[in-house]
Automatic annotation (TrEMBL), chain A:
The lineage of its organism: Eukaryota, Metazoa, Ecdysozoa, Arthropoda, Hexapoda. Belongs to the cullin family. The keyword Electron transport does not apply. GO terms for molecular function: ubiquitin ligase complex scaffold activity; ubiquitin protein ligase binding. It is found in: Nucleus. It comes from the Eukaryota. This is Cullin-2. Residues 423-651 form the Cullin family profile domain. GO terms for biological process: growth of a germarium-derived egg chamber; male germ-line cyst encapsulation; negative regulation of BMP signaling pathway; negative regulation of receptor signaling pathway via JAK-STAT; positive regulation of proteasomal ubiquitin-dependent protein catabolic process; regulation of synaptic assembly at neuromuscular junction; ubiquitin-dependent protein catabolic process; viral process. The keyword Phosphoprotein applies. Pathway: Protein modification; protein ubiquitination. Gene3D superfamilies: Cullin Repeats, Cullin, Chain C, Domain 2, Winged helix-like DNA-binding domain superfamily/Winged helix DNA-binding domain.
Automatic annotation (TrEMBL), chain B:
Pathway: Protein modification; protein ubiquitination. Its EC number is 2.3.2.27, 2.3.2.32. GO terms for biological process: intracellular signal transduction; proteasome-mediated ubiquitin-dependent protein catabolic process. It comes from Drosophila mojavensis. SUPFAM superfamilies: RING/U-box. This is RING-box protein 2. Signal peptide: none annotated. The keyword Transferase applies. The keyword Cell wall biogenesis/degradation does not apply.
Length: 776, 111
């Protein structure tokens, strides 16, 4: 045990180094070393490092260095450069041998160095590392440190680099490139041993400069993750000697290949080939190269096959898109995907135009009564089709999705001409109306269609127009009890609220609540009647709407002398209502009321549904059989328009007979006692429930009025905040404020600015014509 | 109507003898609109229609529960009317009607 003493002692260098160097030689050439010897060598290293009076670490280092240098030189001369190589450098048969010999030697040497590094652990840890730490602490540089010593692993690899690699690099790289070219020529079927050799040689260029990685791979697996970060790798040698020439050679190869392809391929085939080549080159890179080269090689490949050939690739783009050749488009997408977005613009733009054309085709030839249904459903089909295509072909790429959005928006918001307004908002609103009205369609299907409808709705720029139409149609559905289901109605309002916010649906909600409040109110009123033993003799149902929420202007209240048959009901209800609420007044909207009248003057008795005005007219015939139009109008206080509108259907139904075609004041109206109808219960059709062109126009005009108010308010708000603003800046801010509900035209904004100047909210500033300032 | 056939011939002559009227109202679906019974339908304090919620309530996005009973109208003895919300803030500073300067006292409240 004495020989294992850790105590420093006086020693003769040669006595220890000479046997030690033999072990070193055995290690470095991977010859067997006896365990006992191996163990003894550790203490030899230790002994030399701590020798007295002077430690011999430096000398050990120098001797080891000398030994390694001469060993590597010897290997270069005798093992790697076989003698005939120097003479027959051009003999192609000998070429692969250089790689093979280098690889074999390197495998042996790098392994040996790892053992050696371990053997010199004490020297590495105690002598060299400590020295390095003090160096960096004091001067942040170990280049100038007097010793300039490296750990043995690093030293060994460094010697290899200087002596072996620097000398052979050019030849090695040439052989490697030939090997890679051979792999390309054989479609990647180079024999696996060759691949292993080439791969090993290439990686030796990296490993030789990153001794920590090499050493730690074997010695210390725990530290691997810390030291293996690629950005911490030193790749200078690899990049300068190998990667650069390799990329250059590959680029030249790609260019030639691309040219060859161009000569024999259609675009469609070219795309297929390029995809194959990209895949092969990626595999090849993984097979041979260090992983940091992969993106660079791919880029080179893309550059030569794609970027440089964009003109060719795009040459059939229009046909591929218009014929929707999915496989070709898919290939084109795969090929274009890695390149910059702006270079894909042509495909995207072509695709956008294609969707737009198809949209316009399916939507703008539409005619007839159900145009709104066809409009929405055709547009949905287009949207759905291309959404599916984008998922299938373009991997849901956001660039393509936004092209779809742009195309749809442009079709949906297109005006048929400068003069005509875009009617999409109206169509979409009417489509909802059709769905929400009573029909045989099942609830689930309606729900699905309403959800789909939102897809189209979102593209509409004139959301305010939609809102106007929607609220008018909703009002009609609610008042005339045409809704299929109140749940569906509420669901739709909630969808709109989700899409456009509370403000947008506020009034719709209020309308909706009015109806449920009215239902309650009717129940309470009927109970009240029952409790007080009052019989009105009719089945009364009253809807009380709040003013302001419903799209029914007060102008629509028409003078009407209410027949006494209704009076009791009205009075009873008003009394009840005023008792229940205070401060409210009720206005009866007779033009929206209807009822059932039992006719007993004919052979059979009939129950007829009709408007209140029509009921009032018929009731006049209780006491006489003929009346002049003037008499009827005077008794009921009806204006001409209302009278005509309600009288005509009664004549058409033949319940009443007129003695002239046109109804003038002197026209005599007679009760038809010979009237018959197969049905005992029927309805007098009324013009009221159909949307008239005037109503449509009225709706559009009222939208314009609302927009002006909105714009003026927006301008005042902006100017109040900014105080002074240039014309163009003001326009921009107004546009951004209004885009949620509509896109105003600039002329309208200018008009609003003018009217605000007239009203002295703002003024033009004195020194500049295109600047406004806020007047407090 | 089983006896329709028998009566068909002398339907008209029997008309007078029948007490039943020729026309009877069976059912009436009426529509009425309510509004606050006010002289001026704009609240002079917030400049919003009294039928709508006042500015504050709109800004706070208050939900309209059962026909908007939370932002009602109030009438003073002077018969001027305002949003109750607006007026209750106003009287904290000045207990007079903003329109006629009479001392403010509530005549009635909307419900």
């Amino acid at each position: 045990m004495a020989e294992m003493s850790l105590k420093p002692k006086r020693v003769e260098f040669g006595e220890i180094w000479n046997p030690l160097s033999r072990t070193v030689e055995s290690l470095i050439t991977l010859r067997a070393v006896d365990r006992k010897v191996w163990n003894a060598c550790f203490s030899d290293v230790y002994t030399l490092c701590v020798a007295q009076p002077e430690p011999m670490a430096d000398r050990l280092y120098t001797e080891t260095k000398n030994f390694l240098e001469s060993h590597v030189r010897d290997m270069l001369a005798n093992k790697v450069m076989a003698k005939h190589d120097a003479a027959n450098a051009n003999n192609t048969n000998s070429r692969p041998d250089l790689l093979q010999r280098y690889y074999t030697t390197w495998t042996e040497y790098s392994q040996g160095i790892q053992y050696l590094h371990k053997l010199y652990n004490y020297l590495n840890q105690q002598h060299i590392k400590k020295q390095k730490i003090t160096d960096t602490d004091t001067m942040y540089s170990n280049q100038t440190s007097a010793a300039g010593q490296m750990e043995i692993g690093e030293l060994g690899l460094n010697i290899w680099r200087v002596i072996m690699v620097e000398y052979l690099a050019e030849d090695l790289v040439r052989h490697i490139l030939e090997g890679i070219a051979a792999d390309r020529a054989s479609n990647g079927t180079l024999d696996s041993h060759r691949v292993q050799v080439i791969n090993g040689v290439i990686h030796s260029f990296v490993e030789v400069e990153n001794y920590e990685k090499v050493i730690n791979d074997v010695v210390n697996n725990v530290d691997n993750e810390k030291t293996q970060k690629p950005d911490s790798l030193n790749l200078k040698l690899y990049q300068e000697h190998f990667e650069g020439p390799m990329l250059e050679a590959s680029g030249a190869y790609y260019m030639i290949e691309a040219n060859k392809l161009l000569q024999r391929c259609t675009v469609s085939q070219y795309l297929q080939e390029v995809i194959k080549i990209l895949e092969c080159e990626t595999k090849r890179a993984e097979k041979f190269l260090h992983k940091t080269s992969l993106p660079k090689l791919r880029k080179q490949c893309e550059e030569k096959f794609i970027n440089d050939r964009l003109g060719y690739i795009y040459s059939e783009c229009r046909d591929m898109v218009s014929e929707e050749r999915r496989q070709d488009l898919r290939n084109m997408y795969i090929v274009l995907k890695p390149i910059q977005d702006n270079l894909k613009a042509e495909l995207i733009q072509t695709f956008l135009e294609h969707i737009k054309n198809e949209g316009l085709e399916t939507v703008y030839a539409l005619k007839g009564e159900n145009i709104h249904i066809a409009f929405v459903e055709n547009m949905l089909k287009v949207h759905h089709k291309y959404q599916e295509l984008i998922a299938d072909v373009f991997e849901n790429d956001s660039l393509f999705l936004s092209a779809l959005d742009k195309a749809c928006a442009s079709v949906i918001n297109r005006r048929p001409s400068e003069r005509q307004p875009c009617r999409s908002a109206e169509y979409v609103a009417k489509y909802c109306d059709t769905l929400l009205k009573k029909s045989k369609t099942c609830e689930a299907e309606i729900d699905q269609k309403l959800t789909n409808n939102i897809t189209i709705f979102k593209y509409i720029e004139d959301k305010d127009v939609y809102q106007k139409f929607y609220s008018r149609l909703l009002a009609k559905r609610l008042i005339h009890e045409q809704s299929q289901s109140m749940d569906a109605e509420e669901g739709m309002i909630n969808r709109l609220k989700q899409a456009c916010g509370y403000e947008f649906t506020n009034k719709l909600h209020r309308m909706f609540t009015d109806i449920s409040v009215s239902t309650d109110l009717n129940n309470k009123f009927n109970n009240h009647l029952k409790d007080n033993d009052i019989d009105l003799g009719i089945n009364l149902s009253i809807k009380v709407l709040q003013a302001g929420a419903w799209p029914l202007g007060s102008t629509q209240v028409i003078p009407f002398a209410v027949p006494q048959e209704f009076e009791k009901s009205i009075k009873m209800f008003e009394d009840y209502y005023h008792n229940l609420f205070s401060g409210r007044k009720l206005t009866w909207l007779h033009h929206m009321c209807h009822g059932e009248l039992k006719l007993s003057h004919l052979k059979k008795s009939y129950i007829v549904t009709m408007q209140t005005y029509q009921m009032a007219i018929i009731l006049l015939f209780e006491t006489c059989d003929t009346l002049s139009c003037r008499e009827i109008q005077n008794t009921l206080q009806l204006n001409d328009e209302t009278f005509q509108k309600h009288m005509q259907p009664m004549i058409e139904s033949k319940l009443l007979i007129a003695n002239s075609e046109n109804l003038s004041g002197d026209t005599r109206i007679e009760l038809n006692f010979d009237y018959t109808n197969k049905r005992t219960k029927f309805k007098i059709s009324s013009a009221l429930q159909k949307e008239t062109p005037q109503e449509v126009e009225h709706t559009i005009n009222s939208v314009d009025e609302d927009r002006k108010l909105f714009l003026q308010a927006a301008i005042v708000r902006i100017m109040k905040a900014r105080k002074v603003l240039k014309h163009n800046a003001l326009i921009q801010e107004v546009l951004s404020l209004s885009k949620v509900s509509f896109t105003p035209n600039i002329a309208m904004i200018k008009k609003c600015v003018e009217s605000l100047i007239d009203k002295q909210y703002i003024e033009r500033t004195a020194n500049s014509g295109d600047e406004y300032s806020y007047m407090a | 109507m089983a006896d329709d056939g028998e009566n068909s011939v002398d339907n008209k002559p029997t008309d007078d003898s029948k007490p039943e009227k020729m026309f009877t109202l069976k059912k009436w679906n009426a529509v009425a609109m309510w509004s606050w019974d006010v002289e001026c339908d704009i609240c002079a304090i917030c400049r919003v229609q009294v039928m709508d919620s006042c500015l504050r309530c709109q800004a706070e996005n208050k939900r309209d529960v059962l026909g908007r009973q939370d932002c009602v109208v109030v009438w003073g003895e002077c018969n001027h009317s305002f949003h109750h919300c607006c007026m209750s803030l106003w009287v904290k500073q000045n207990n007079r009607c903003p329109l006629c300067q009479q001392e403010w006292s509530i005549q009635r409240m909307g419900k």
